[in-house]
Each structure stands twice: as structure tokens, then as C-alpha cells.
Amino acid sequence: MNAFLVEPQWLEERLGAAGIVVLDCSWYIPEAGKSARDEFEQGHIPGARFFDLDRASDAGSAYVNMLPSADDFTRVAGDLGVGSDSLVVVYDSSYVSTRVWWMFRHFGHDNVRVLNGGWKRWKAEGRPVESGSASPSAATDFTAREPSGDVATWREVLAAIETGSAVVADARTKERFTGELPSGYPGVAGGHMPGAINVPWGRMIPQSGDFTFVSPQQAEAIFREAGVDVDRPIIATCGSGVTAAILAFQLARLGKTDWTLYDGSWHEWGQRDDLPKETT
């Protein structure tokens, strides 16, 4: 086990071990028309609990997937049986795990790892699966600490665009970035912030092979090839702050600390008439 990832064999050997909490955090954008909870009940890693990203987001916000308050995150984590000393292992069926990894770290819980290859690799390797609802977990004492300063606001993104104080890296697919495809959210057109650099998340987790993350060295090469100067401060963005965390995760693996994540991302930016947009 390294500081960011665990491999399926490592996790299988420790299923049910005290102190390890496995969370399935699968989630889909509205246009996908899928229910992650239904899929969880059809099959999941034995002993895993379902992390509901919608429940763990700010229900009062006009924008999707916004970070909750520390108190709300405390309740969500505690209800899932996560304690202050727990090793949290997160996985999903697509691209959400790093968002939840970031959320735990944002609220001061650094003892969190991503399952390398996620649910797709776990199934492909023929590892054990169980179905049905997760067994109820006893509520645990978890306290989210004051959030760290790793969140960018639209004002900071605008300033970065206008002054060049940071590189804005957008993790969406090329088609959503250019506006060729809609955003994936009803009423929100495609497009991007002027000057943003497109670094599609799928390059960091190739959707062929075993769905594992590329190495930090490969990630750095991908960033630089796209035009991102990894020696400068970086703001990661995407459609709603989910796949942006994949870029943040890879930057953290590179040892960078001068990155932030634009939580509102395109779901906020794209709906604001007072912010500049491009489609190319």
C-alpha cells in the first residue's frame, strides 16, 4: 500500500479487518440515466458501504456536488462507520473515487486510499462480490476538522485567467470542453473558460486494460503535453468538481501542494451570465 492507492489483492486479503472501511462511491451525471445505488445492491465488494455523493453534498446549493459543511460531512462519515482512526478505501465504477478521496482529505482525514482499477478491475480479476443492501454500520465518532485551503472560487479562477496567476486545467472530455457536446447537466451548455487547458480525465485512467491510474511520471508527461506547466500553481476544474479531483490526485502524487480544485466548476461557471466562456 502506498500513500495514495491500494491494489485489489491487498484489499481482498484484508476484507473485514478491523479499522478498514470500504466505501463504494459510484455516481452518475443525470444524462446517464443510471442509479448507482441500484448497481451497488446488484453487486459490490463484500462489506462495502454505499457513499451517497448526493447526500454528502450541499443540498442548499444551486450547483451540484458542492462540498458540504464540516458538520454535515461529520454526520455522513460517522453514519458510514468511519472513525477518526479508520483507513478508508474508496472505489467506484467510473471516475468518482478521487472526489471522495479529496473530500476526506479536505476535512482533515488523510488516512484514505483509492482502490487502483476500481470496481471494473475488481470484477475483471474475479474477486469476491456480494449483493443486496449494505449491512447497517454502527455510527462512529468522526470529526471533520476545519477545511483545508484547497478550494478555488469562481473569483480565483477569473483572476487566474486574467492575470496568469495559475494554470486552469479542465478534466472534461474534449467534446464537452469545446461545446461539441452539452455539459451533461440539464440547461447547462458546453464550453470552457477562456485560457483553460483541456486535460481529459480518461488519459489519467485509461479506459482500456485494467483501468488503473497512469504513473506519476506518465501523468506529468500528459500534463506537459497538454500545455500545463506543472511548476506553476494549478486550478483543477471539470463539469461539477468530480473528475477535476482526478487531476488533483495526480498532482498530489507528483508531490505538488500548490493546486486547488474549483468546486463549482462548469456547472456554476456555465450558468453565470457575468463570466466569460468559449467554444472552440
Write the layout of secondary structure elements.
Elements (H helix, E strand, L loop, with lengths): L4 E2 L1 H5 L7 E5 L11 H7 L6 E2 L19 H10 L7 E5 L5 H10 L5 E4 L2 H7 L26 E2 L1 H10 L3 E4 L3 H5 L18 E2 L17 H11 L7 E4 L6 H10 L5 E4 L2 H5 L11
Parallel strand pairs: 1-5, 2-3, 2-4, 4-5, 6-10, 7-8, 7-9, 9-10
Question: What do you see in this structure?
Answer:
This protein is of the alpha/beta class and 280 residues long. The protein has helices at 8-12, 36-42, 70-79, 97-106, 118-124, 154-163, 174-178, 216-226, 244-253, 265-269; strands at 5-6, 20-24, 49-50, 87-91, 112-115, 151-152, 167-170, 197-198, 234-237, 259-262. It folds into 2 domains: 5-124, 3-Layer(aba) Sandwich (Oxidized Rhodanese, domain 1); 151-269, Oxidized Rhodanese, domain 1 (3-Layer(aba) Sandwich). It contains 10 helices and 10 strands. The strands form 2 sheets. Strands 1-5-4-2-3 form a 5-stranded parallel beta sheet. The chain has a 5-stranded parallel beta sheet with strand order 6-10-9-7-8. The mean pLDDT is 95.
